[in-house]
């Protein structure tokens, strides 16, 4: 594989199309149709005089991607990091590695409305177990979430922490639950601490759980979560890219809503085009350097 595309929306699909047409071996991983799932009628996209629904546009995009020989996998993206063969993405269908990656996972989702969450951001509240788990060795920590991504983050913390508790904030517990992981399904009332540092999670029933750190892992890993895992520069929650859609990490490009406004299909398609061509050029330059 030459290029790994994370995301199957307009930015990701376009990146896969142009990377494949550049002669690269491409794999695209997507979980769902993202923002397109909520688009009932799209009437402002070039070449579509009649309205088209978001789900239909998503389906047609993937059909075009597959027609070019791109390997398409439907899986949840759990983590992004570095390996022996370049950048690696851990997914629910295994780990995928490539020398160039295009991150097109959409805009970061909303954070939960829990009093104190913003106050302790970076002072006990974290969004990356790989990044910050080391600081919790031998201490008690909690993970906020109830899905596959939350269980993945908890699994990263188990070998490090004294105890890891999964907090579902009132949501049902996951069906498959590791025996060495504690569980608390009570709704959360607030986060509390002393001297600006998180010390406990307070529940709606008046109880509390003392923790060194709370790792937020709601839903699935968003663009911001993946960015933190590899040290990408972000600004106001958006991934910073240059004119070639390159990030500060060599070989990693970003496209679409994760790079900021306007959140429009036309911009996403343009971003995906540039990112794919830049990724192809990056691979070719690496190949020439190895031969030199």
Descriptive labels:
alpha/beta; five-stranded parallel β-sheet; 292 residues; 6 helices
Q: How would you characterize this protein structure?
A:
The chain is globular, with a radius of gyration of 20 Å. The two termini are 22 Å apart. The chain is 26% helix and 27% strand. With 292 residues, it is α/β, with parallel strands linked by helices. The protein contains six helices and 18 strands. The longest helix has 27 residues, at 265-291. Strands 3-2-1-7-18 form a five-stranded parallel beta sheet, with helices on one face. It has a five-stranded parallel beta sheet with strand order 8-15-9-10-11, covered by helices on one side. Strands 4-5-6 form a three-stranded antiparallel beta sheet. Helix 2 (54-67) links the parallel strand 2 (26-30) and strand 3 (71-74). Helix 1 packs parallel to helix 2 (54-67) and helix 1 runs parallel beside helix 6.
């Amino acid at each position: 594989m030459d290029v790994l595309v994370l995301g199957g929306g307009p930015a990701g699909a376009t990146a896969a199309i142009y990377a494949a047409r550049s002669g690269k071996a491409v794999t695209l991983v997507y979980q769902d149709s993202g923002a397109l799932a909520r688009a009932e009628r799209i009437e402002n996209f070039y070449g579509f005089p009649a309205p088209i629904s978001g789900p239909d546009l998503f389906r047609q995009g993937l059909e075009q991607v597959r027609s070019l020989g791109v390997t398409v996998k439907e899986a949840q993206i759990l983590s992004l990091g570095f390996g022996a063969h370049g950048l690696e993405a851990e997914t629910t269908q295994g780990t995928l590695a490539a020398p160039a990656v295009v991150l097109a996972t959409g805009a970061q989702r909303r954070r939960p409305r829990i009093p104190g969450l913003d106050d302790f951001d970076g002072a006990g509240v974290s969004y990356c177990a790989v990044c910050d788990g080391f600081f919790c060795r031998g201490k008690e920590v909690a993970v906020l979430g109830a899905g596959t991504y939350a269980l993945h983050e908890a699994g990263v913390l188990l070998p490090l922490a004294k105890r890891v508790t999964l907090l579902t904030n009132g949501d049902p517990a996951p069906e498959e639950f590791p025996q060495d992981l504690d569980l608390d399904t009570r709704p959360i009332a607030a986060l509390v601490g002393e001297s600006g540092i998180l010390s406990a999670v307070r529940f709606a029933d008046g109880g509390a759980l003392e923790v060194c750190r709370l790792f937020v892992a709601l839903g699935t890993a968003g663009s911001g979560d993946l960015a933190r895992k590899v040290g990408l520069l972000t600004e106001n929650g958006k991934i910073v890219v240059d004119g070639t859609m390159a990030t500060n990490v060599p070989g990693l490009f970003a496209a679409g809503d994760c790079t900021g406004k306007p959140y429009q299909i036309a911009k996403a398609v343009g971003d995906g085009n540039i990112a794919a061509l830049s990724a192809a050029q990056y691979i070719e330059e690496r190949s020439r350097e190895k031969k030199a």
